Amino acid sequence: MSKLGVIEDTLFVPMLGRIYASEHCPEILFDNKALELKKKLPPGLLEQNRLSQYALLASAVRSANMDRFIRAFLERRQDGVIVQLGCGLETACYRCDNGRTRWYALDLPPVVEYRRELLPEPEREIYLAGDAFAGNWIRQIRTDVPQAPILVTAGGLFHYFSETKVMELLGMLSEFGEMELIFDAVSKGGMAMMRKKYMKQLGHGDAQMVFYVDSASELASKIGGGVRVLSEEPYYRHIPRTGLKLSTKVSMEISDRFRMVKMVNLRL
Questions:
Q1: CA–CA separation, 10 vs 142, rounded Å?
Q2: 95 and 31 Cβ atoms separated by less than 8 Å
Q3: Fewer beta carbons below 10 Å: N end or C end of the chain?
Q4: Alpha helices, DSSP H, located in the chain
Q5: Cα–Cα distance measured from residue 60 to residue 78, given in angstroms and rounded to the nearest whole number
Q6: C-alpha span between 32 and 95 (Å, rounded)
């Protein structure tokens, strides 16, 4: 645990969000594996949690959105492979597996080491330790599955990296066969709301969010090489809001109305 250092917040907040949703808003997301792991989290973490309902659900909604795209992809391509960049303690494999899919989960070495302690590798999920922006992982995966269609998920990953770095990654991936990418993105105007509503609560109010997407089609054009937008939708479009606090509903409505946060699905 001590090796995790400054990444602890970003590692545990999504898990706390999934636990909160499972216990209080299961119609948004129910994650039985997260509930099982609750007692294994660091002592005091749950008691010390002072995140608002909106901040907790923002993390859970990311997982719910990713699940929807993963399931749709596997319905279209039963031979598909799922690759999760910046996996943290994500448990999508337990929620979305179809009994035959091969899964890969990539993160920094200290995170993968801790993930293995908390979540030993399932039969068909392979953990990879490394840099998401390096090419080693995709070369390894293409050696394992040369022809399989791949869905790459990048939840909460791109915001803090330069457009140049993100574009280089996407351009590189487009050279490795049939590939889709799903990620969440903020608009330029949404960055201020993210800092106010979310990042300050995590203690990262000064964090520099530099990558944004105002138009997925413009992003695809910049990447070039035949990249196509499969969907671009407001973050909370499919999320039921019955029973939520008024402040949470208002924040979700404002975010969607002004497209501050969105889900982007590309074919690379």
A1: 29
A2: yes
A3: N
A4: 8-24, 32-37, 45-48, 53-76, 92-96, 109-118, 136-144, 163-173, 190-194, 216-223, 246-257
A5: 26
A6: 8
Listed in sequence order, the DSSP H helices in 30-108 are 32-37, 45-48, 53-76, 92-96
Q: Mean of the pLDDT values across residues 253-261? A: 95
Residue 44 to residue 157: CA distance in whole angstroms: 27
List Cα–Cα distances, 120 to 96, 113, 114, 127, 230, in angstroms: 17, 10, 10, 9, 34
- The two most distant CA atoms of the chain are separated, in Å, by 50
The two three-digit tokens of residue 103, written as one number: 């899964």
The token duo for 237 is 């479009």
φ/ψ of residue 163, rounded to 5: -60, -40
Cα(70)–Cα(227) distance, integer angstroms: 19
Specify the pTM: 0.93
Backbone dihedral angles phi then psi of residue 25, each to the nearest 5 degrees: -140, 60
150 pairs with which residues across the strands? Answer: 81, 179
Q: Which has the closest alpha carbon to 157: 121, 211, 201?
A: 211
The pLDDT tens digits for 120-170 are 999 999 999 999 999 899 999 999 999 999 999 999 999 989 999 999 999
